[in-house]
Amino acid sequence: MPLVSYADLLNDAQRPAYAVGAFNIFGLEFLPVILQAAEEECSPVLLQINPVHYPWMDLPGYLRYVKEQLAEISVPVGLNLDHGTSFDVILQGIQAGFPSVMYDGSKLTFAENLKTTREVVRLCEPCGVTVEAELGTLNDEGLNLTQANQDLLFTDPIAAARFVEQSGVHALAVSVGNAHGFYRGEPQLDFERLEKIADATPVPLVLHGGSGISDDDFRTAISLGICKINIYTEMSAAASNRVRELIGSQDRMDYPSLLMEARESVKAVVVHKLRTFGSSGKA
Description:
Layout: H1 6-13, E1 20-24, H2 31-40, E2 45-49, H3 59-70, E3 77-84, H4 87-96, E4 100-103, H5 110-124, E5 130-135, H6 147-153, H7 157-167, E6 171-174, H8 191-200, E7 205-207, H9 215-223, E8 226-231, H10 233-247, H11 255-277
Parallel strand pairs: 1-2, 1-8, 2-3, 3-4, 4-5, 5-6, 6-7, 7-8
């Protein structure tokens, strides 16, 4: 099946409510098992590449390979540039062949983020490239959240409505207590804030930092408007933990065997997420 557009994947997820799993790939280790899991679960899926992983790949060649693999896949699959933090990175991604991009201006002021996001949308529109943006700052530092820093870090619903209207983005990643990587302590998502953001904005909403959030919290977030959830850290940890376990055992395994075991651990994470997100059977 040819690549399915990011916009179509997320718009379909709004009716009925489920979330598309967005899984980061950086080489041949994760790609096959993510696609296998999607086919077995009859689930749409979104593949993502983060620029931090560019040093491990020939990007244009890898994108060509990914697209070739999708010709044999029967479920809808999208491809997205994840966390492009500059105009130049976004331009490089478009030139390399990404059909959708995520511009991350979340560390900028509202005015700077809006200005650059609008420029990214203007760059992408003539190419038919979908744009996801981010408003609010994820709690990656593991701060002890108070009302004061929540108001500072989290996405403001009124600001979100203005941002979406004036930028022209197709999807918005929000900050409601989520964080990249594993959480320090239990995640405390602000569902009341999320509901207000969903009511104020017409575009699909995205939850970054999905590794470590409970299944129940995922389901609640999806019921309140989250249509896409990013997963990477949990897959990486599953693979590395399995390799450590096998290396520490009495059995001697060659590298291909270790790799296959690591892949199966990744696949188990993906299958669980697809079922939790409600996308199984929705292809």
